[in-house]
Amino acid sequence: MSNNQPAKRRRLSDESVPRLREAELRKIQDLPVWEARKAVLEGICSNQVYVIVGETGSGKTTQIPKFLHQSRFGKSKIICTQPRRVAAIANATRVAKEMGCKLGGLVGYAVRFDDTSTHETKIRYVTDGLLLREAVADPLLQQYKVIIVDEAHERTLDTDALLGLLKRMQRLRKDEFHIVLMSATLDAGKYASFFPGAEIGLVQGRQHKVDVMYTKQAQESYLDAALTTVLQIHSKEAAGDILAFLTGQEEIDALCNLVKTRGAQTKGAHGQEKLQAVAIYAALPAEQQAQVFHPAPPGSRKVIFATNIAETALTIPGVRYVVDTGVVKQRSYQTGAGVDLLAVVPISKAQARQRSGRAGREAPGKTFRLYTEAEFEKLESSTTPEILRVNLAAAVLQLKALGISDIRAFDFVDQPPLPALVFVNGRTEQQKQAATQAKQRFRRPQGDHLTALAVLRAFLATGKGKRGEWCVQNCISGRAMQRCHRIFQQLCTLLQAMKLPLERLGDTQDPEPLQRALVCGLFLHAACRQSDGTFKVIGTGQEVSIHPSSVLSGSKPECIVFNELVFTRRNYARTVCNIQMSWLIELVPTYFTKHIPR
Ligand code: CDP
Ligand code: MG
């Protein structure tokens, strides 16, 4: 929030972060962790592994690394992991403001492709995936005296892999170092027993009363119900912002747009005339993420449409009302079917309680659950850890890179079921944000991978100074393209190191080698067209349709491979490539001679 308008987009770290005002700094000291400061520090210093449990918003993430820095660990490096990039960036920015330094000074963040930390940086917020990658070069993470694994209750795959790694480190590292696990739920007992000798400390949260309202009947569309409820709150309820939980970017963008039009016609209660909609989800650029933390302009009320990222990872001040759709988008792996599913599923009771809690941080609040009380009673009590439900291919590769050859013997908090350590399933990074219009212009009949490649080639063929403009003209996200470009460069470097020729790389005149490569990587996701126009996954017999976002939607390829299966109203294959059936037997004979009838 520098006074000068930046001429072009700058990294957050280039901006000097203005220190918070005195009054705000004093307010920080009212956070519940401040009361527990001494006990927290003692707990960490006197145990190698210390688990801190405290309600979301009590100050764990922003204050505890600071406490440590102000203690005898002042000269040491402290690292704090977050399950998502948004949280790493937002929390580092906040702490830099509290400490009056710029990002990359005393406080910094590092996420994939964006590392603001320097040799000065003592408090580093990183994604847990990034720390796992650092561990490839430095398996004992020697440079850190304190390693904080935050949001341990989220049990993401990376967090779980990291915990296993830390346990190994605990055995092997002989110098003084401390592991701190922070969690918003009492599941903490489980990690405490995972690490020998771990202690648990509780931070008593401050929670105001939250009234919970259920719908009388089950709702047909949670999106319609969410919009109606938000508008009703705006027109009937006292001052305070609204936090509404949806499942993903498309829904969030759609509702933000609807509120812009419908919200303008809805008169607010108590003089709050305008309703301002803001979005927060993981893929949102950092500059836009920052908007959710800005107070609504005077005379208006803010509604934040969020994914489950706002459940625990981010605390947004000012929220008095929560709208809970009761659903979340979750990745899961069907071991038997051999496919990854990205599906909208009911949340757990623990998640519903977390969501409600967000309304009572600063004052009494209200939660509107868009489901019936009977439906709530039927929810699972807690969410299944990711490690028990996803395809472990990427994590297995990462652990192998760390020199752990027998994954089955690796110590996980929850041991994954053996069949989930299936065959390694290659996957292409896919850029999601290319707009539909551009997709049509760059459309290649071979499908989405080749289309994406055509976009990248056109981008690279554009002069460096003109690329920003090119992206705008073609409705393509410049940020996504830059990321794509960096991955492309990274892969080129790897290929060069392996002395593989680059000249034929992604030749759009001759797409066959690429199509064949995709068959080799994605053969478990190969499907053939049936007479009714749907496709059947060859290995499993599962029925799928081509996702409407695909450039192949509406065309009739005989045989396809695809990146992932998404379940919404039906099973959809997303990111699809047209292939020849004969390639399957030619390239993966051991698998397909079994499955394709001759
Ligand atoms: O980690 P925990 O959920 O216990 O709390 P925290 O993330 O450290 O947040 C403590 C307080 O700092 C929140 O209640 C917010 O008021 C404030 N905060 C903020 O204003 N902006 C951020 N990016 C992070 C925290
Ligand atoms: Mg936190």
From TrEMBL:
Q: Which CDD domains match?
A: DEXHc_RHA-like (cd17917), SF2_C_RHA (cd18791)
- GO CC annotation: what is one? nucleolus
- Is ATP-binding among this UniProt entry's keywords? yes
Question: What's in the keyword line of the UniProt record?
Answer: ATP-binding, Helicase, Hydrolase, Nucleotide-binding
Kindly give the SMART domains that the UniProt entry links to this protein.
AAA, DEXDc, HELICc
Which GO molecular-function terms appear in the entry?
A: ATP binding; double-stranded RNA binding; hydrolase activity; RNA helicase activity
What sequence ranges are listed for the domain Helicase C-terminal? Answer: 222-403
Give its E.C. classification number: 3.6.4.13
SUPFAM superfamilies the UniProt entry points to? P-loop containing nucleoside triphosphate hydrolases
| Enzyme class, broadest EC rank | hydrolase
Q: Name the chemical reaction catalysed here.
A: ATP + H2O = ADP + phosphate + H(+)
One GO biological-process annotation of the entry reads: positive regulation of transcription by RNA polymerase I
InterPro entries assigned to the protein according to its UniProt record, in alphabetical order: AAA+_ATPase, DEAD-box_helicase_OB_fold, DEAD/DEAH_box_helicase_dom, DEAH_win-hel_dom, Helicase_ATP-bd, Helicase_C-like, P-loop_NTPase
Tell me the superkingdom of the source: Eukaryota
A Pfam family this protein belongs to? Helicase_C
Q: Where is the Helicase ATP-binding domain?
A: 41-204
Report the sequence similarity comment from the record.
Belongs to the DEAD box helicase family. DEAH subfamily.
The protein's name is RNA helicase
